[in-house]
Design brief:
The complex is a heterotrimer of chains A (752), B (143) and C (128).
Chain A lengths: L1 H22 L2 H6 L1 H13 L6 E8 L4 E7 L1 H24 L7 H20 L3 H19 L6 H32 L15 H17 L8 H4 L5 H10 L3 H14 L3 H24 L3 H22 L2 H32 L10 H4 L1 H15 L5 H14 L3 H30 L12 H19 L1 H15 L16 H21 L9 H24 L4 H14 L19 H19 L3 H22 L2 H22 L11 H26 L8 H10 L6 H9 L1 H21 L3 H4 L5
Antiparallel strand pairs in A: 1-2
Chain B lengths: L1 H22 L7 H17 L8 H21 L9 E6 L3 E6 L1 H22 L3 H4 L2 H10 L1
Antiparallel strand pairs in B: 1-2
Helix pairs in contact in B: 1-2, 2-4, 3-4
Chain C lengths: L2 H18 L4 H22 L20 H32 L8 H11 L11
Helix pairs in contact in C: 1-2, 2-3
The chains are: A mainly alpha (752), B mainly alpha (143), C mainly alpha (128).
Chain lengths: 752, 143, 128
C-alpha cells in the first residue's frame, strides 16, 4: 500500500507535469487526489497498533534500501501532511484566480513536495529519510521561487535552499556517525545510544543542527520569514504545517535513541528556547501579518524542539499534541492572511481595518485559530499548552529552570502576539475595500479552525490516537493521557496567569504604531552565502584554469601521494636482483632508450627511439619466456613507428621548448610517479599468493582447448569473452580512425 | 628498387602471416601477430606507392561477425559460450591435422587487426604516398 | 619480484609521465606509449619469475613462465596499440586543422576562470 500510494503520487505528478499547461487551474484539483487517498489511508491506520512496512532493497550488503514503516506517529503525520495538503490545493484553486499563469507548474511542484514529505515521515531507513529530506529542500526552493521574475523572491529562495540543503549535508554527516555508533540504519531499530562515544555525541549534535536548519531555529531562522515571499498556499503548507516540521520529526524519531546523550538534549533545548523567545519577539515587532505568523512559527517550532529534546514521556505527549494543534491553527491563520491578501490587496497591519465586519467567516475562523494558538479553552491548543506546562513543571534540576522559562515565557509571548495579531488585523480602523468573495478561499481555513474545536470536543478518541504515537516517540514508556480539564493544579494556575499577562501585553502592543525591525539575521545569512559562493568561484578559477599539462601533473602528484602507505609494505625478502643476468642488461637498455627518447630533439628521432624502446621491451619478453608477447610487441612497435612517422612526418623537426621551472616541476613529479609505481609493486610482491597452477593450465590447454600454446588457448578459449571485447575495442578504433580520415566532411560543406 | 623489393617480399611475408595464424594454437603466433604481419605488408605496399586498400571497415565488420559467431555457436547445441570444438582429420601428406574452433576465432581476430591497420593508413594520411612516386609531389601540393 | 625489471618499470613510468605532461601532442603520444610499456612489463614482472615459453610438451610445467599474465599482457599490448593508433589519427587531424600539434588550453575553462576573477560578476563574459 505504501508503494502504491507513492507511485500514485509520482504518476499524478508526471501527468501534471505534462498536462499542467492545458489543465490550468484544474490541475490543482487533480493534484489533490493523491493526498486525499493518502489522508484516507492514514486516517484508517490511526488506531492500528501494527505498523505497516514496505521495503525495496537496492544494495543489501550496504544496507542501502528504501525502507518505509508507518507506525502510530507516522500515521498522525500522514494525516497532517496529506489532509492539509488537500485543503491547501483546494485553497490554491481559489487563491490563483482564473487565467493565472503557471498554475500547472505550481500544482506539480506542490504535489511533488507533498510526496517528498510523505516519504520523509514514512521513512524507516535513515538513508531513505535523507533522500526525501533533500527532496523537500529542493521542492521547497522551487515553490518559494515560484514567482521567478522577482529579484527579492530569488534571493529568498536561494537563502532557503542554501540553509536547508546545507543542513542536509550536516544531516548526512551526523547520520553516518550515529548509525556507525548504533550499528543499524533503521530508525525503528535504533537502540538507545549512551553518551559514551565521541562519535555518537558528535553525530547527535550534527543531527540536531540539521534539524535546527530545517525547522528554522535561531540562528538559522532567517530563511523562514524570507520564504514568506512565496504564494500563501506554500507558506501555509510548507512553512507552517509540514516542511518546517521535518526537523521536529527528525528530533522526535531520533529522540528515543539519542536523548541519553547530554549534548543532544543541551543543544536541542538551547536551540529551542532561544527560538521560542526570539521568534515571539519578532512576531511582536513585525507589521506584515504574514511575517508575524512566520516569526510565530519560528517560536512554536522552538517549543516543539524543546519538548522533544527534553524527551520525558509527558513532554513528548505535549509535543505531539502541540504538533497537531500547530498544524491546525497555524495553517488556518496563514490561509486567512492569504485570503485577506488576495481580497484587500495588502497584508500590512497599518493598512487593514474593519475586517471583522466585512469578513465575518474569516474573522470567526481567525479568532478560533488564534485562541487555540494562545492556548485558551475550549480549544485543542489549550490542551497542548496545558500539557506542555505540566511537563515543564515536572522536570528537575537546571533543565527545569531553562525549559520552564522557555515554555512559560514563550506562552506569555505567544498570547501577546496572538492578541496583537487579531487586534491589528481585524480591529477598528478605516474600512479596507475588498474584492469579491471566493468560496475556495474561505472554506479551508474555516475547516482547519473548526478542527481545533472538534479536537477539543472529541479529545477521548483523539487521545487514543496521539498517546500511542507519543509512546512510540518516548521509547515505549507510558505517557499518560491528554485531559480536557486538568483539574485545579499548578499548571492551570500558571496557564491562567499566562493568558492574563499575555493578553495585557498584546493589547498594549496591538494599536501601537511603529517601524518593522531591520532583518539583520537575513543579512548575515546572505553575507555568509555570498562568502561561500565567492570562495567557490575563487577555487574554480584557481583549479579549473584550462591547462591540460597542469591538470595532468596535479593528478599524477596526487596519485603519487596515494602510494605512500605502501612504503611500509615493501619486503626485501621477496625481491631478487634478477632471474637471469640478461634481465639486468635489458632493464638498463629499456630505461636508456626511454631516456634517449626524451633527449632526442626531433620527431623522426623520437619515433625511432620509441621503436628502440619497444624492441628492448620485446627482448625483455624473450628472456622472460614470453614468446607470443615478444612477437606481438615487435610487430606492434613496427606499426606504431610507421604510424608515428606518417602522422608527424610533415611537422617541423623539433619540439617546442617549455620554461625551465615548469620542466623541473614535471621532472620531479615524473620521478616521484615512477618511484611510486616501484613502491606499489614492491609492496605487492611482499604478499605472494599461491604458486600459479602451471601444470593444471598446461593440461587443460591440451585437453579442453585443443592446443599446446597455453597463452593462445587462454586467449581464444578460457578468456575468450575478454578477447572478444578486446577485438571490439580494435573495431571501434578502426571506425574512429576511418571517421577522422575524412577531413572534408566537417570543413567542406557549410551546415545549413 | 624499393618497390621491387617490396613486391618480391610480399608473398613471403604473406606466407609467414599464414604460418603464424595456423601455428598459433600450438606454437608462438596467433591471430594478432598474423594480422599485424598482413597489415605490415599492406602498409609497406601502400607507402611504396602500390594500390591503397580501402576495404578496412568491411574487413573489420567481417572479422567481428566471425568472432562473435564462434563465440555464440556452441550455444546452438547447448554448450557454454566459447566451447572449444576440435576436429581431427587424417589428411594425406600432412598426417594428422587438428583444427579447433580457435582457428576461425583467430582468423576473425586477424581480419579485425588487418582492417584496423588499413583504416589507420587512411586516418594517418598514407594516401599521400599511395598514388606512387610521380604523383607524390602533386599530392604534396594539394595538401 | 625482480628488482631489475621493477626499476625498468619505474624508469619507463617516470619518462612516460614526463612526456605525457608536455605541450606537444606527439610527445604526449610517446609518453602514452611508454606508460603502456611500463604497464606490460609490470604485469609480466608481477606474474612470476622467468621460465620457458608456456607451450605444453616443449617444457615441463614447473619450468614454464606463468602464462596467465602473458595472456593479460597480450590483451594490454593490443589495446594500447589500438588506442595509440587512435591518438595518432587525432594528432594527424589536429595537424590538418591547425598546422601544428600543440595541445591548446581549454578555452572554455580559461573563460570561466577569467570570468570568476573579474569583479563584475558572471553575467557578461560571454560577450568577450
Amino acid at each position: 500500500m505504501i508503494f502504491s500510494l507513492l507511485v500514485l503520487h509520482v504518476a499524478v505528478c508526471a501527468v501534471l507535469a505534462r498536462a499542467g499547461r492545458r489543465l490550468g487551474r484544474g490541475s490543482l484539483l487533480v493534484g489533490a487526489v493523491p493526498p486525499a487517498c493518502s489522508a484516507l489511508w492514514g486516517a484508517a491506520r490511526l488506531g492500528d497498533s501494527q505498523p505497516a512496512t514496505a521495503d525495496l532493497t537496492w544494495v543489501g550488503g550496504l544496507d542501502l534500501a528504501m525502507t518505509f514503516r508507518v507506525d502510530a506517529f507516522a500515521a498522525v503525520m500522514t494525516l497532517i501532511v496529506s489532509g492539509i495538503g488537500v485543503l491547501v490545493l483546494v485553497y490554491a484553486f481559489g487563491y490563483f484566480g482564473p487565467g493565472t499563469a503557471h498554475t500547472g507548474r505550481f500544482a506539480t511542484t506542490l504535489l511533488a513536495f507533498s510526496t517528498a514529505m510523505l516519504g520523509l515521515v514514512w521513512a524507516d531507513s535513515v538513508w531513505t529519510l535523507f533522500v526525501f529530506w533533500e527532496l523537500t529542500s529542493v521542492t521547497s526552493f522551487l515553490l518559494v521561487g515560484h514567482k521567478s521574475t522577482d529579484a527579492a523572491v530569488l534571493v529568498a529562495a536561494r537563502r532557503a535552499l542554501m540553509v536547508t540543503a546545507g543542513g542536509g549535508l550536516v544531516l548526512l554527516a551526523g547520520l553516518l556517525l550515529v548509525t556507525g555508533a548504533a550499528g543499524t540504519t533503521l530508525i525503528s531499530e535504533l537502540a538507545p545510544v549512551d553518551g559514551a562515544g565521541a562519535g555518537a555525541t558528535a553525530g547527535a549534535v550534527l543531527v540536531m543542527i540539521a534539524a535546527a536548519t530545517k525547522s528554522a531555529q535561531v540562528p538559522f531562522h532567517a530563511w523562514l520569514p524570507g520564504a514568506m515571499v512565496a504564494p500563501t498556499p506554500v507558506s501555509a503548507y510548507l512553512h507552517a504545517a509540514t516542511m518546517v516540521k521535518a526537523g521536529v520529526v527528525l528530533v522526535a524519531v531520533a529522540g528515543p535513541a539519542l536523548s541519553g546523550i547530554v549534548a543532544w538534549r543541551g543543544c536541542g533545548i538551547a536551540f529551542g528556547v532561544a527560538s521560542v523567545v526570539w521568534g515571539a519577539l519578532g512576531a511582536l515587532r513585525h507589521r506584515d501579518a504574514k511575517l508575524i505568523l512566520a516569526w510565530g512559527t519560528v517560536s512554536q517550532l522552538g517549543m516543539l524542539i524543546t519538548l522533544f529534546s527534553v524527551g520525558t514521556p509527558a513532554a513528548v505527549l505535549a509535543a505531539v499534541a502541540l504538533l497537531v494543534a500547530h498544524a491546525l491553527f497555524k495553517g488556518a491563520l496563514f490561509l486567512i492572511v492569504g485570503e485577506i491578501d488576495v481580497r484587500a490587496g495588502t497584508r500590512h497591519i497599518d493598512e487593514l481595518g474593519g475586517l471583522a465586519r466585512s469578513m465575518p467567516v474569516a474573522f470567526a475562523a481567525a479568532v478560533l485559530a488564534g485562541l487555540s494558538m494562545a492556548g485558551a479553552p475550549p480549544l485543542f491548543g489549550f490542551v497542548a499548552k496545558e500539557t506542555a506546562i505540566g511537563a515543564a513543571l515536572g522536570l528537575e534540576g537546571p533543565e527545569a529552570w531553562i525549559v520552564g522559562f522557555g515554555v512559560i515565557g514563550g506562552s506569555v509571548l505567544t498570547v501577546a502576539y496572538t492578541v496583537r495579531f487579531l487586534v491589528a488585523v481585524f480591529g477598528p480602523g478605516p474600512e479596507t475595500p475588498l474584492s469579491a468573495r471566493r468560496p475556495a478561499l474561505s472554506a479551508p481555513p474555516a475547516v482547519l479552525a473548526a478542527a481545533g474545536v472538534a479536537a477539543f470536543a472529541v479529545l477521548g478518541p483523539l487521545d487514543s490516537v496521539l498517546a500511542p504515537a507519543a509512546v512510540r516517540l518516548s521509547g515505549g514508556a507510558a505517557v499518560g493521557h491528554l485531559h480536557r480539564w486538568p483539574g485545579l493544579e499548578p499548571a492551570l494556575a500558571v496557564s491562567a496567569a499566562v493568558l492574563v499577562v499575555g493578553a495585557i501585553v498584546g493589547l498594549a502592543m496591538g494599536g501601537r504604531p511603529g517601524q518593522a525591525p531591520a532583518d539583520r539575521a537575513a543579512r548575515w545569512t546572505d553575507a555568509s552565502i555570498d562568502g561561500a559562493v565567492a570562495v567557490g568561484r575563487a577555487t574554480v578559477a584557481r583549479v579549473q584554469h584550462g591547462s591540460l599539462p597542469v591538470y595532468l601533473v596535479t593528478m599524477a602528484a596526487v596519485a603519487t601521494l596515494a602510494a605512500t602507505p605502501f612504503l611500509a609494505g615493501i619486503s626485501l625478502d621477496h625481491i631478487v636482483a634478477w632471474d637471469r643476468p640478461l634481465q639486468g642488461v635489458l632493464a638498463v637498455t629499456v630505461v636508456g632508450a626511454a631516456v634517449a627518447l626524451c633527449w632526442v630533439g626531433t620527431r623522426l628521432g623520437a619515433g625511432l627511439a620509441l621503436g628502440a624502446t619497444g624492441i628492448a621491451v620485446a627482448s625483455v619478453f624473450v628472456v622472460h619466456g614470453a614468446a607470443d608477447l615478444a612477437l606481438t610487441q615487435l610487430l606492434v612497435e613496427a606499426a606504431i613507428v610507421v604510424g608515428f612517422v606518417l602522422a608527424f612526418g610533415h611537422l617541423s623537426r623539433s619540439f617546442p621548448m617549455t620554461g625551465l621551472r615548469w620542466r623541473a616541476v614535471r621532472m620531479a613529479v615524473a620521478g616521484l610517479g615512477g618511484a611510486a609505481v616501484v613502491v606499489g609493486l614492491g609492496a605487492a610482491s611482499g604478499n605472494p599468493v599461491a604458486a600459479p597452477p602451471l601444470a593444471e593450465l598446461a593440461a587443460a590447454s591440451v585437453d579442453e582447448g585443443g592446443g599446446s600454446n597455453v597463452v593462445n588457448v587462454i586467449l581464444t578459449d578460457i578468456r575468450g569473452l575478454d578477447t572478444l571485447g578486446e577485438v571490439l575495442v580494435l573495431a571501434t578504433v578502426a571506425l574512429g580512425v576511418q571517421a577522422l580520415a575524412r577531413p572534408s566532411a566537417s570543413r567542406g560543406s557549410p551546415t545549413p | 628498387m624499393i618497390r621491387l623489393g617490396i613486391r618480391a617480399a610480399s608473398p613471403f611475408a604473406a606466407v609467414v602471416g599464414c604460418y603464424l595464424l595456423f601455428a598459433g594454437h600450438n606454437n608462438p603466433g596467433g591471430g594478432f601477430a598474423a594480422g599485424l604481419v598482413f597489415g605490415a605488408v599492406l602498409a609497406l605496399r601502400t607507402v611504396a606507392g602500390f594500390h591503397q586498400p580501402t576495404y578496412g571497415v568491411a574487413l573489420v565488420a567481417a572479422g567481428v561477425l566471425v568472432v562473435a559467431g564462434v563465440a555464440v555457436m556452441p550455444l546452438l547445441w547447448g554448450g557454454p559460450l566459447f566451447d572449444q570444438q576440435v576436429l581431427s582429420v587424417e589428411a594425406p601428406l600432412l598426417g594428422k591435422v587438428k583444427a579447433g574452433s580457435a582457428l576461425p576465432f583467430d582468423i576473425g581476430v586477424a581480419a579485425i587487426v588487418v582492417g584496423t591497420v588499413i583504416a589507420a593508413l587512411d586516418g594517418l594520411g598514407a594516401s599521400e604516398f599511395a598514388a606512387g612516386p610521380p604523383a607524390r609531389s602533386d599530392g604534396g601540393e594539394r595538401e | 619480484m625482480n628488482a631489475a625489471l621493477l626499476l625498468a618499470v619505474g624508469g619507463l613510468t617516470a619518462v612516460g609521465l614526463y612526456l605525457l605532461t608536455g605541450r606537444s601532442l606527439s610527445r604526449i603520444i610517446l609518453g602514452y606509449s611508454l606508460l603502456g610499456h611500463a604497464t606490460v612489463v609490470a604485469l609480466i614482472t608481477a606474474g612470476g619469475p622467468a621460465g620457458w615459453p608456456p607451450i605444453a610438451g616443449q617444457a615441463a610445467p614447473e619450468d614454464m613462465s606463468n602464462p596467465l599474465p602473458q595472456a593479460l599482457t597480450l590483451t594490454a599490448i593490443v589495446i594500447s596499440f589500438g588506442l595509440t593508433l587512435f591518438l595518432l589519427a587525432l594528432a594527424r587531424r589536429q595537424r590538418t586543422l591547425s598546422g601544428d600539434d600543440l595541445v591548446e588550453d581549454d578555452l572554455e575553462d580559461r573563460r570561466i576562470a577569467a570570468a570568476e576573477n573579474a569583479p563584475t560578476g558572471p553575467e557578461d563574459p560571454v560577450a568577450t
